Amino acid sequence: MEKITTREQYDAVKAKVEQLIADATAKGMLEPDMDNSYTQEISALSKQMATYEDEYLNIMPLRQKSPLIACIEDYFYAHGLKQKDGAKLLGVNESQFSQIMSGRRRISMSLAKRLHSKLGINAELILEYA
After folding, report:
1. In the 8-state DSSP scheme, what is residue 93?
2. CB–CB of 18/46 below 8 Å?
3. 2-44 pLDDT per residue, tens
4. What Å distances lie between residue 108 and 3, 26, 31, CA to CA?
5. Whole-angstrom distance, CA of residue 107 vs CA of residue 92
6. DSSP string over 10-77
C-alpha cells in the first residue's frame, strides 16, 4: 500500500474512490456485507486517504454524543416530547437547554437532580457524564 504524501496524490485517490463507488453502485456490487474487488480497493484507498487526513489535513474527529444526552433524547422520543417540551418539563430555558443538548453548556447540579427525579435517568450515568 502506497503512502499518500501530497495533496495532488490525495485528490487523485479521492477521485478514484468516487469513480469506484459509482461503478460498483451501478453494477450492484456495493451492497452491505459484499466482499469483492471493488469493496477491497475502496477500503484500501480509503485507509490511505484517512492516514493522509490524520497526518496532513488536521481534520477534527467527529464528536461522539454523550451517553447522557443520548439517554435524554431517547426519553423524549419514547414520550413524544420535543426539545422545547423537555426544557419546560425540566424547568430550563429553551436556549440553555439547546446548548446543553448540543454539548456547548454543562449540566448544572440542579438540572442533574431533575433529570434523575423527573426522567428517571440513572444517577451513576448522570454523575459520570454531566
Report:
1. -
2. no
3. 899 999 999 999 999 999 999 999 999 888 778 899 999 999 9
4. 47, 52, 46
5. 11
6. HHHHHHHHHHHHHHHHHTT---TT--SHHHHHHHHHHHHHHHHIIIII-PPPPPPPPHHHHHHHHHHH
**Angle (deg, nearest 10), helices 83-90 and 94-101:** 110
Dihedral angle over CA of 8, 9, 14, 15, nearest 10: 70
What is the rounded distance in angstroms from the CA atom of residue 21 to the CA atom of residue 15? 10
Question: Tell me: the pLDDT tens digits for 53-67?
Answer: 888 887 766 667 889
Query: Is-contact 105 130, C-beta < 8 A?
Result: no
At 101, which amino acid appears?
Answer: M
Task: List the grid coordinates of 7.
Answer: 495533496
CA dist 14 and 79 (Å) reads 44
Count other Cβ atoms within 10 Å, centred on residue 34.
11
